[in-house]
Design a protein that fits this description.
The protein is an alpha/beta fold. Helix content is 47%, strand content 20%. The protein is built from 13 helices and nine strands. The chain has helices at 3-21, 36-51, 69-78, 110-118, 120-126, 157-160, 171-178, 192-198, 208-213, 239-242, 247-281, 292-310, 312-319; strands at residues 23-28, 56-61, 83-87, 135-149, 164-167, 183-186, 203-207, 222-237, 285-287. The strands form two sheets. Strands 1, 2, 3, 4, 7, 8 and 9 form a seven-stranded mixed β-sheet that branches. Strands 5-6 form a two-stranded parallel ribbon. Helix 7 packs across helix 12. The structure holds (2R,3R)-2,3,4-trihydroxybutanoic acid (EAX).
């Protein structure tokens, strides 16, 4: 065979094999591509594409384009969606062992929370997912949640009492918020901006990165830095994809997910440092002197229920992590 023909056949074979092997992964998340979820997802996708020599690429679906987080988790379980970068909000409905990390005022600060998630307690929770038809690649991060509303400043629980607040579809949160006198209204995230705009709910609670990227300052004028819940997040993969991966590619996916978590946490730190001034500039009145002890005191009756459900010793194991 002439050299020219051989070269032509080779390049054809190469491009055909490369073309044949490229798999595009659908990844969804609730907020914008330049938000903390978008930053983490982009790092994951870039590292996977590099680590698999382009055999796996991503297609991003930001801004809840594939539905609310619960819907997306179901789609990942069914295999109709490949990945979701999601808060733990609805995850407890699929993997009950996750619910313990949603307890209000459980984590002292970011350092404590990240140590727990990256340590044996957090890693043991990730190991509970495969039996429920979901692969949990790594913890990413949503951030400490703060309260916003359209009515008044919130310094102590009695200021929040009577407010109709949207919550995630999360019973642990709702049980806790009731002790503050809040009327919890569970709602999927894509419906939230409209509900705030129409006044269907008075307020909501979310981390600064979400309040920023969702532009809630346009429909909420009070922000109270309650930090009442640490909201972990997860990068979840469909077993349909995972089961086809070689051991080497599995390691690429896991390493990329850990890098994503680190990048997402860095973006959360940046948003926490710069975002509050931005939200004030956007017109929000910010309460910094929240009476955290009054909220913790009010929460005590809910802790009786949490101890019954999760075991007081398990809760203590988390709060004791230094
Ligand atoms: O994960 O639903 C929520 O409030 C979540 O924090 C949001 O979807 C980002």
């Amino acid at each position: 065979m002439k050299l020219g023909t051989l070269a032509a056949c080779l390049s054809l074979a190469l491009s055909a094999s490369a073309f044949a092997q490229t798999t595009t992964l659908k990844i969804g998340y609730a907020t914008t591509k330049d938000s903390h979820y978008g930053v983490g997802s982009t790092v994951f996708c870039d590292e996977v594409e590099k680590g698999t020599q382009g055999r796996y690429k991503c297609q991003h679906f930001p801004n809840s384009a594939l539905g609310g987080e619960r819907e997306q988790i179901e789609a990942v379980q069914l295999g109709t969606q490949d990945l979701v970068n999601t808060s733990t909000g609805p995850v407890g409905n699929f993997v009950p062992e996750v619910k313990i990390v949603d307890i209000p005022f459980l984590f002292r600060d970011y350092d404590h929370a990240r140590k727990v998630m990256d340590g044996p307690i957090g890693q043991d929770i990730l190991a509970k997912f495969p039996s429920k038809g979901i692969i949990a690649l790594a913890w990413t991060e949503n951030g400490f949640r703060h309260m916003t509303n359209s009515k008044r400043d919130i310094v102590k629980p009695s200021d929040a009492a009577g407010l109709k607040m949207r919550t995630m579809e999360n019973k642990v949160h709702m049980d806790g918020y009731r002790t503050f006198g809040i009327l919890p209204t569970p709602m999927a995230f894509p419906e939230l901006f409209g509900a705030l705009q129409q006044g269907t709910v008075d307020g909501q609670e979310n981390p600064i990165p979400v309040i920023l990227s969702a532009k809630f300052a346009q429909v909420q004028n009070h922000l109270s830095l309650t930090g009442h819940v640490y909201s972990p997040a997860l990068l979840l993969l469909s077993p349909r994809v995972w089961n086809k991966l070689s051991d080497a590619d599995k390691k690429v996916f896991l390493d990329a997910a850990r890098s994503a978590g680190a990048a997402q946490r860095k973006k959360v730190n940046e948003d926490e440092n710069n975002g509050i001034a931005q939200l004030e500039k956007d017109g929000m009145k910010v309460v910094r002197n929240v009476d955290g002890n009054a909220f913790r005191e009010a929460l005590k009756p809910a802790y009786v229920g949490y101890a019954k459900e999760f075991g007081a010793d398990n809760i203590k194991k988390i709060s004791d992590v230094k």
